[in-house]
Amino acid sequence: MRIAIGLVEHIGDIVACEPVARYLKLKYPDCQLSWVVNRAYRDLIDSNPYVDETVAVDCLTDWIKISRHGCYDRIVDLHVNYRVCAHCRVPLIKEHGNPFINAYEWLDYGALLEAFSMGAGLPKLSAAPRLYLSDAQRVAVDALALPSEYCVIHRESNNLEKDWTGENWRALAQWIKSNLKLQIVEIGVSKGEQPSPLHGFAIDLLNKTSILETAEVVRRARFFIGVDSGPAHLANAMLTPGVVLLGRMGAFRQYTPYTGLYGSDAPDVKLMRNLLGPARKLALEDVVDATGYVNSVLAERTPDEPRVEPVAAAGSSRDSAFGPVDISAEDLASLRASAMFDAAWYVLHHPDVAESGLDPAEHYLSVGGPSSYLPSPDFDSAGYLLRYRDVADAGLNPLLHYIRFGEKEGRQAQRSSKLSTSLQSPQKGTDAKSIYPDDTPGLSAVLEQPSVSLTSGECAHESMPRTFAFYLPQFHPI
Question: How far apart are CA 329 and CA 129, in angstroms?
Fold first, then answer.
């Protein structure tokens, strides 16, 4: 089988969607996997051991031609519908995947990887991204002779609304130098001839390192500070603690583009948000406080303590609460035949499955089910056990019970909103997105409309219907 992944640009998008290649290789081990990408970003794909072929193109229009006329058995188009080629101004009208996830409302569907994977017709993927660095990048960064302790700053994105003011960056750099006694390294691409506001305060690596060399610089940093752009995704993939500046994106006041570390509630990550305007209007004092907080968290760690890794998408414990489990051939056959169990998704989102050496189905029956691991994005193990105490009390595997009895009895496979506040979401923090089904934000949640009570407090909340109005734009592609 020949599979083509299409995601032409940019750095952040490509890094965030790295788990797609791993998922497809797990799902179709013998497939020939190609990734179509802009030439400027091909290093990110060339270094990926799960991709067999990099197809370098000039723009989105080239991908449109390949997706319609290429000799591939399956097209995985990670672009959102109605995206327009920046060079040719040709719009993408998707013929593959979910056309309803489009350029105007994709943030409704969660993090970047989650929205793009669903738009491509894949299951909702929420795994942490990875980067694959080699000795070549390490040697190149060694040659820069950077200090042993430093923080990294990235100031400019490809969207002016995301960029903080030069005055604020300079003031923040002064505070870091004076209070944290820490060297600063500036990374990224210089947009003009004007000197950086960090001139005299930072080691200047603007335009001096490749994408993967920049990732190695970020990996070695004590922490990262920057706007929502490609280098922030590099820091997320490198598990580098960080402070990211976020603001409104169009009609969306709050969004989280990351899965993994920066999409979790890890204490060494702070996503600073301006809910009332763009990131450039974030207060200096708030960013200073966040930087000081992350630095204090890191200061409490011992030198040999590993960096915080995102928690696997599991339940409250990795250990089975029910003791040894007998696995029958019938149980394995039932599980593997069910659409509710996606072995590739299960391995991708639970790294300890591969580490255990067990077959994914055997792992779920012996460890994953009792520990409330999700077998796919369509079944909530923890919610099922919490909702149906008879299943939990009997020590039954939740998905097996649903396959054999629960579906016929009309039991719910996914978590209901009534139970959502009672269940722990290991990957979800205050602002983070979770892989759990009910975390897809609704319209009112995205726009942060206040909740209006229509009844007295004595009336049961669930007895009142919730109503809203919405407008659906109509598109008539030529």
Answer: 35
> What is the Cα 10 distance to its own chain's centre?
15
Helices (H) and strands (E) in the chain, counts: 19, 10
Instruction: Tell me the residue type at 90.
Output: V
DSSP string, 64-75: HHHHHHS--SEE
Return d(Cα 40, Cα 120) in angstroms, integer: 23
Structure tokens at 114: 């989650």
Q: To which residue do tokens 């007295």 refer?
A: 456
pLDDT, position 444:
32
The answer to whether 110 and 433 have CB atoms below 8 angstroms apart is yes
DSSP letter string over 183-204?
A: EEEE-S---SSSPPTTTTTSEE
DSSP 54: E
Q: pLDDT for 95-127, tens place per residue?
A: 889 999 998 888 889 999 999 999 999 999 999
Q: Which two tokens stand for residue 187?
A: 């990374």
CA distance 45 to 373: 30
User: For residues 398 and 369, is the Cβ–Cβ distance under 8 A?
Assistant: yes
